[in-house]
Amino acid sequence: MSDKEGILVVAEPKDGKLANVTLESITRARALTGAVGGPVSVVVMGADTAPFVAQAGRYGAERVYTADSPELAVFRPGPFVDTVAAAIAAADPAVVLCSGSPDGRDVAAGIAARLGLGLLVDITAIEAQSGAVTVTHPCFGGSLIVEKQATTIPLIATVRSNSFAREEAAVEPQVVALSVEFSADSLLAKVLAVACENAGIVSLEEASIIVAGGRGVGSAENFALIQALADELGAAVVADELGAAVAASRAVVDAGWKSHPYQVGQTGKTVSPGLYIACGISGAIQHRAGMQTSDCIVAINKDPDAPIFSCADFGVVGDLLQVVPALTEQIRKRKAAS
Amino acid sequence: MNIAVCVKQVTDTEATAKLEPSSWRLDRSVTCILNPYDEYAVEEALRIKEAHGGEVTVVCMGPENATDAVRKALAMGADSAVLVSDPALAGSDAQATAYVLAEALKTFSWDLVLFGLRSTDGETGCVPGAVAEKLGVPLLSALSKVDIQGTTLTVHRETDEGYVAYECPAPAVLSVIKGINEPRYPSMKGIMSAKKKPLDIKDVGALGLDTTQVGLESAKTRVLSARSPEPRKAGVKVEDDGSGAEKIADFLTGAKLV
Ligand SMILES: Cc1cc2nc3c(=O)[nH]c(=O)nc-3n(C[C@H](O)[C@H](O)[C@H](O)COP(=O)(O)OP(=O)(O)OC[C@H]3O[C@@H](n4cnc5c(N)ncnc54)[C@H](O)[C@@H]3O)c2cc1C
Ligand SMILES: Nc1ncnc2c1ncn2[C@@H]1O[C@H](COP(=O)(O)O)[C@@H](O)[C@H]1O
Hints:
The complex is a heterodimer. By secondary structure, chain A is α/β, with parallel strands linked by helices. Chain A has helices at about 20-35, 50-60, 75-90, 100-115, 225-235, 250-255, 285-290, 320-335; strands at about 5-10, 15, 15-20, 40-45, 65-70, 95-100, 120-125, 125-130, 130-140, 145-150, 155-160, 175, 190-195, 210-215, 245-250, 275-280, 295-300, 315.
């Protein structure tokens, strides 16, 4: 048995706030303290972490480790790994949860290698019983569900967005400022510029609704129909400030109608929103690999035999150029009526 | 610039993944291919070589038949390859893989190590970061652009909003995304000459690896169980007779999704 206790959540900043996946991880961590002990702590880093501290407290973080430095303003593996290593040394936790985003994975990989820990990636569930922590990881595009444990402690894992609920439970957190010495090697990579041509877009991993278009959309211009439906649905989900995002199949990205960050599937993003609406997507196995863990799937396709229907909760065989704008209109009408 | 490219042989994406129940190891008896992401890494290495000179060395850890994936990278134009293959390595997890690759990379000199963003079977995307840490060089991952001036790299890392541009001196570890380039197909000549290119197969002893750090027994993560999820049932499917949109809206309202 080890005397390590509590859970450390590595915060991911997103547009000046904490990413949903961080809030979800804090919420889940609170439920595990009975089995792994407390406290729930969070490490926040950035040029100015004050807003993160407040938000972490609102979601129930009992202790917040802060690292404020201009070197942490924009993500870089070097100084971020140094900071998280310092937080782990200070918190001595039993469990460390990172975001499953590219940034979170870089940090988790570096930490696991530095501390000689086993790494559990892309988990969608975590349970603890008398000291033993078990995680669930859907792999091979969701075609296998694997339960895993780590043989090293702390257990370190990256968490898939939208896997846990997000609930506020305000506490006044104890704030501990970390003093982190960045090694010279960690600062070798320098940030030159941050380009935000898609500023304000809803991140696919975090979106609660995704409207995805495939080759059947027909052209880049027709994606305006997909966008309009997403905007209407996004505005309809009041409770959720993140709303709806637009995604694409690989055929669309290869045709140049949308850029690579929009691609869902094996060589794109893995998403599990509450609702995934596939428009003009055939549903090839490589596409399904990225979206079949969505809670609810709706498909619109003019081919009644399209494989996407085999995993759709609701399917309409029809022309998306008719159905999508009509659906946008329906949502608008119903919202106005309610 | 001498470049090392780490490539993995993976099970074909069309094949159904199966784990052997005795060990929870991936059944690799199905068709195998070069990890699709790694083709972008090989292509990027070849482009850098074409622009700046140098040698491209492929590094792979895998079973004996991983020579197929390695030969494909050689056929695309890489100069030589190292395959680390040993029964003792079977069942290694991402951290053990990173240890083996890092040790293999310490046996020759390079300015850059390129990786694919992730493997389509391991899917951790964590091997590059772990290798960078073990080698003590900077990691820049998920790159959509790599430019080189002398020994300085300027790279773009894709983000949801756009990209972040970084500058970094070599040596460095980089992982690249789909879309950074269009990988070439091996030419007939490439395929023929690949058969004659040096391919050094090394076992655990040849690399002087610590056997307590590799293989299934020493893995720091353990699979307890694996199951196929309940297959998603096809739900309701209706023909659009003009009311398709309304039916979807009814369904969404009924399911409290809007
Ligand atoms: C190694 C590898 C990795 C891959 N990775 C990915 C990945 O990450 N993501 C991904 O998406 N794919 C991926 N693919 C490609 C995948 O196999 C499919 O080719 C791709 O998903 C097809 O995209 P699509 O469904 O948009 O196009 P298509 O297969 O061409 O399907 C278009 C669909 O639209 C329907 N349609 C046409 N017009 C209309 C209309 N007016 N109204 C309604 N329906 C209409 C058609 O009936 C058809 O079903 C990968 C392939 C390989 C080999
Ligand atoms: N066994 C291996 N041999 C060589 N390279 C590997 C191996 N496993 C992973 N890699 C490299 O690491 C990248 C990320 O893999 P992964 O962490 O498994 O998703 C791959 O795209 C490869 O470039």
